[in-house]
Specification:
Protein name: Tetratricopeptide TPR_2 repeat-containing protein
InterPro entries: Bac_ResReg_Asp_Phosphatase (IPR051476), Cro/C1-type_HTH (IPR001387), Lambda_DNA-bd_dom_sf (IPR010982), TPR-like_helical_dom_sf (IPR011990), TPR_rpt (IPR019734)
GO molecular function, one term: DNA binding
Subcellular location: Cytoplasm
Shape: elongated
Largest sheet: none
CATH architecture of the domain at 3-66: Orthogonal Bundle
Number of helices: 23
Main location: cytoplasm
Number of strands: 0
CATH topology of the domain at 3-66: 434 Repressor (Amino-terminal Domain)
Order of helices and strands: HHHHHHHHHHHHHHHHHHHHHHH
């Protein structure tokens, strides 16, 4: 470094620290000597430079190496990124070990430190995954909406597809089914458009679309997507999705009254799930067998499977699964005209699903309760429950279940000798069935 540049660096550092030339000279040197050094008129002795460096709290090399500042900044930057990487790996490990709250805390800590745009958005993506794991779906959607523009602009296709899929899951869990479906279809379109290699993701997307169509009462479309999922999962040897697709095909064939096919697919699913020891899937498959045997009016067999499913869900701590089976056991007793026993199970289920905010199941229970109280001649209570069911199911867009609620109101108004109202609700029930 030449004399002029050295003097300039000393002067800049002195001014940055709000010091005067006299503060540098002390009793050892004169202010005039410091002034000449800063103007680049003379070169300081090693003793003088060491003295000045101590006064400015800098190493001597700071004034001699032209790249010192850049090197120090680079070291700081590297140290920062090393710290971020260590925290990120710790957060990933916490997530893998299901310590989701710890992972969230670490990701937020990383975001609190200034990092580049790419890293900020990527950490937010992993943060969204952690919130999804603890079922904070509103928070997940908030984060994904914030980071979507960046990833779309950057054309990071696999993340874009996964974000649409995650949005679909969140919206589905929040019972916003149409918006959920739109995001699933965007995810599938993106997967195929960009020829992505993340094969399991495609199975998940196809299965989720099928499930949603089934939930919305569009069983032909549901069957098509279950078949697509089964074919694709067989091709890539995704055994768990082969089981899930068979189970789904069992459900939709049951809804389409193809009972022989329904039993065939569900039993295939159970065989695979038992081989893989997928307890939650087995519980779900027993539940579906119960549906089929209920429709076949083999109520004792149906109840046996619902009880087995309930017990498995109870062991797994899955209240939602428990409630769904209680509803179906209640429905069996309703069909057998054992109304006190039916009410016992239906009220147990209603208590659980109300606590969980499971509006879909609440709607179904109110329909059964309305029909039950109609049979008992409690018309006012029946009307209240059926209208409550319509209010819930209409909002959710669940056509098949809504059709059942309208049919119940039609029967109620026949009993009340109000044929015009009855006709209106029967027509609404039929229209929904034709839409499917």
């Amino acid at each position: 470094m030449d004399t002029v540049e050295l003097g300039k660096r000393i002067r800049e550092e002195r001014k940055r620290q709000f010091l005067k030339q006299g503060d540098l000279s002390g009793d050892e040197f004169s202010k005039g000597y410091i002034s000449l050094i800063e103007k680049g008129k003379i070169s300081p002795s090693l003793k003088a430079l060491n003295f000045i460096a101590q006064k400015l709290n800098k190493p001597v090399v700071y004034f001699l190496d032209e790249d010192y500042v850049e090197k120090e900044e680079l070291k700081k930057e590297l140290a920062k990124y090393k710290n971020i990487l260590e925290k990120f790996l710790t957060a990933q490990k916490a997530f893998d070990n299901k310590n989701y709250e710890e992972a969230i805390k670490l990701y937020i800590d990383i975001l609190d430190n200034a990092i580049d745009e790419y890293s900020t958005n990527l950490i937010n993506f992993y943060l969204a995954k952690s919130y999804f794991a603890i079922k904070d779906y509103t928070k997940v959607l908030e984060i994904l909406d914030k980071i979507s523009p960046y990833f779309e602009k950057s054309s990071l296709t696999e993340i874009i597809v996964e974000m649409h899929y995650m949005k679909g899951l969140c919206l589905g869990n929040l019972q916003k089914f149409q918006s959920s479906l739109e995001n699933y279809l965007k995810a599938l379109d993106g997967f195929e458009k960009y020829s992505l290699k993340h094969t399991q993701l495609k199975s998940r997307i196809l299965y989720s679309i099928a499930n949603l169509y089934s939930k919305m009462g569009e069983f032909i479309k549901a069957r098509d997507y279950y078949m697509k999922c089964l074919e694709y999962s067989t091709q890539i040897k995704a055994v768990d999705f082969i089981a899930l697709s068979n189970n789904g095909l069992g459900l939709v064939n049951h809804e389409l009254k193809q009972y022989k096919d329904a039993l065939k697919y569900i039993r295939r699913a159970i065989l695979i799930s038992k081989t893989l020891n997928l307890k939650e899937d087995i519980a779900n498959e027993y539940n579906y067998l119960g549906f089929v045997y209920t429709d076949l009016k083999k109520y004792d067999i149906a109840e046996k499977y619902f009880v087995k499913s309930y017990s498995m869900y109870k062991d797994l701590g899955n209240e939602r699964g428990m409630a769904y089976n209680l509803t179906e056991i209640g429905r069996i007793y309703y069909l057998k005209e054992d109304y006190p026993k039916a009410l016992e199970y239906l009220n147990q289920s209603l208590e659980i699903v109300t606590k969980l905010g499971e509006e879909e199941e609440m709607g179904r229970i109110y329909t059964i309760l309305g029909n039950l109280h109609l049979k008992q001649g409690q018309f006012e209570l029946s009307e209240k429950e059926l209208l409550k069911s319509v209010e819930i199911l209409k909002t959710l867009g669940l056509k098949k279940d809504l059709s059942e609620a309208y049919k119940g109101l039609g029967n109620l108004y026949i009993a009340l000798n109000n044929p015009e109202e009855a006709k209106k609700y029967f027509n609404q029930s039929i229209e929904l069935l034709y839409e499917n």
